[in-house]
Amino acid sequence: MAYARRRTLLAGAALGGVALLAGCSEDSGPEQAEHSSAAERLRKRSARDSTALLARYDATLAAHPALESRLRPLRSEVARHAEAFGDGRAAASPGGEASDGPAREAGAPSDGPSPHGDRPSGPAVPRDEGAARSALADAERRLADTRTKALLAAPPELARLLASVAAAGAVHAYLLAEKAG
Question: How far is residue 26's CA from residue 177's CA, in Å, rounded to a whole number?
Answer without folding.
Answer: 44
